[in-house]
Write a structure and sequence with these properties.
The protein has a single domain, classed as Alpha-Beta Plaits (2-Layer Sandwich), CATH 3.30.70.3270. It is 18% helix and 24% strand.
């Protein structure tokens, strides 16, 4: 048995025992998302002109056009979406918008496929949003968090 290795491991554990943790107490606290953050999408039916550009440009094929009585409407499959933002960037009337939601939980795979009726609602935002913090680098502690 290597007693030196055992003692070194114990010393490392004791050394960090009283150091403040560098993790965020999620979901009560979450990191501040940048202004260019690409979260889940919301589609605005009243702005959409059914040009089909969002479905054509999608590199993963996540957006599919659904036919209705008068025109086609987009739906999204979050199983395939890579959050590249091409669909939002190419839309000539800004009918797609990023939402500050990135951690929505789905219980079945079928829930990730959203028809136009579900896509127009957008992802649900929590009733009580978590406290936002900004990561900072501290010379002594390493990673620290400051209120945003």
């Amino acid at each position: 048995m290597d007693i030196i290795g055992y003692l070194e491991a114990m010393w490392t554990g004791f050394r960090y025992l009283f150091v403040p943790r560098s993790t965020v107490m999620y979901p009560e606290v979450s990191q501040d998302l940048g202004c260019n953050y690409r979260g889940m999408l919301k589609w605005y039916d009243d702005r959409c002109i059914s040009c089909n550009m969002c479905a054509r440009i999608c590199p993963s094929g996540a957006i599919k056009m659904y036919k209705s009585d008068t025109k086609k409407h987009p739906g999204i499959n979050y199983q395939r979406c890579i959050f590249c933002g091409f669909c939002r960037d190419i839309c000539p009337v800004n009918a797609l918008e990023y939402r500050p939601v990135h951690d929505k939980a789905y219980y079945t795979l079928d829930e990730q496929i959203q028809t136009p009726q579900e896509f127009v609602k957008g992802p649900s935002v929590e009733d009580q949003p978590p406290k936002k913090v900004k990561p900072l680098f501290d010379e002594k502690r390493g990673l620290a968090y400051d209120s945003a």
